[in-house]
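Hi there. Long-time user, first ticket. I'm pasting a complex I've been working with (about 683 residues overall). I'd like to know whether the download I got is complete or cut off, because the file seemed smaller than I expected. Thanks.
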Amino acid sequence: MTTRIDTRFAELKKQGRSAFVTFLMAGDPDPATSLEIVKALPKAGADVIEIGMPFTDPMADGPSIQAAGLRALKAGMTLKKTLELVHGFRKDDNATPIVLMGYYNPIYIYGVDKFLADAKTAGVDGLIIVDLPPEEDDELCLPAMKAGLNFIRLATPTTDDKRLPAVLANTSGFVYYVSITGITGAGAADSTAVSEAVARIKRHTKLPVCVGFGIRTPETARSIASHANGAVVGTALVDALRSSLDAEGRATGKTINAVAELTASLAEGVRGARAAAE
Amino acid sequence: MNIAKPNSYRSGPDERGHFGIFGGRFVAETLMPLILDLEKAYTDAKADPAFQTEMNGYLKHYVGRPSPLYFAERLTEHLGGAKIYLKREELNHTGSHKVNNVLGQIMLARRMGKKRIIAETGAGQHGVATATLCARFGLECVVYMGAVDVERQQPNVIRMEMLGAKVIPVQSGTRTLKDAMNEALRDWVTNVHNTFYCIGTVAGPHPYPTLVRDFQSIIGNETKVQMQEVEGRLPDSLVACIGGGSNAMGLFHPFLDDPSVEIFGVEAAGHGLTQLHAASIAGGRPGVLHGNRTYLLMDADGQIQDAHSISAGLDYPGIGPEHSWLHETGRVTYLSATDDEALAAFQLLSRLEGIIPALEPAHAIAKVMELAPKRPRDHLMVVNLSGRGDKDVPQVGEILRGKTK
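Hi, the file is complete. Here it is re-exported in full:
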């Protein structure tokens, strides 16, 4: 079975370049603006779109993404509305892969089977669930694979060679390498360490490896993308969004452009990188 | 209840950390190797007689164990029913049962060569115990505490700082225990190489619920021996308060396979179960948070709801996974006490027995006030007096003055 993710990475490989992967929170700052932002991303240069599912207690996220989730929840965002957002995006775009990223509890409460069926119908291609390590694969990973969704696993600097095979075993779509030990938005990725880590992961898998956490500027994006199959930027985009809001945290006329402009400049950085060696 | 009775209530968890459907290891990949290391270190330590010998030495000479099992004569007379015994965990060094677990975890941290200890705390009792043992063993100590709790438990904040710990007020979310735990987890993910996370209750990812339970089981084991000495038999009932549930699990676990012993856990009903409260079993349902599946307070979308209790130590929207399982198997009965009931019990015990309890076990005393009069005079009831009330004196004083105005 081939998903939009597989197709997209195959195309990029032919073009000889790495993917630019964006992350924003669904419903931030409100559901309607959030849909318009997501719709603007492919044109601005996003190759793969990650959409955060808001959660009250995001234990792996830094202050920026925590605040984005709370803004979305305050604006009435729910998991059902997140799936509606993807559905809305799919009306105009049937090619750009959509990955939902978040924590397990809202999915568990929604009901795993119902969630997978509804996500597939809405046009979701993959899932990244931060608090589901391979030890809990029965919960969602195996059912997701059966439902035809990619389950994208995080590998981290603490995932050593002994553990990597377990982490990669049921991973599909791509591998998300977390470039630092820490929460989102903290620290800066070191390009030498990242290149060694990506090479190490590639010894264990043929899947594309994307790198995230700690990438904020077009320069870092370029340098990271030259060592990997993709670079993920989240906090910097969320911060650009937040800076465009009014004092009450509501969207302004500048909000969509603020995100699109930063996306375009980061995408240019990634496109300037040479393709990762396969 | 809705699941089959097991052959033993004491054999859990399974090798993946499950008590029935509860428990598990729901953590970020960064932490997974650390949790597996901890599990291995704990298994090794358990098999090492030197570990137990060293711990017993500190429990006796540093903590001051065994803690007395005290017959509360005037409380018994006043309530006119069951004979009430208090397990005096409030007499331990640092003033609560928390030190039993912290000692065990700090000794594990030393075995693992970790030099930096982090902890979350609600009422500050776990934070104080952690700061104390870090001082004793020369370890760096960072304690995360909700900003609301920093305000209402000032005496403990000052104690932690005097002991050399760094107390970080947590401003995110509801600024209470749940958020302190989120922040501690974020610290741990960031400082994996040198940091040991000393969890204060029987919750979190496997193996924490098990190892905290094991370190706290000394409460129930001593109670069994002491009751045998004074009454020549098992108690008829046990009562303990529950936030995450470590003092309760420590008292209950050694008695789970003694079917004649009735067991009651008391959650915090805050303003009442139809309003803001912290009773996860009474008002919640199974979900996944902080590394385990357990009963949680949440909305229809799976978002975690704010808990409320007068007691900072019970102000948490979840409960340890083994308690969720004991609830579903029906072995333990979970009740709840409101803020007002706990305040009344706080005053009653102070005046009748000359013991000022912490607000947390005051919730247990509140239910003893209901349960004891309905039981015969030869019924032996043990309540875990898990902490002393010094830390609550300023807060309760202010509330009582406000009420008499």
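A couple of notes from our side: The first helix of chain A runs from residue 4 to 15. Chain A has one domain: 4-272.
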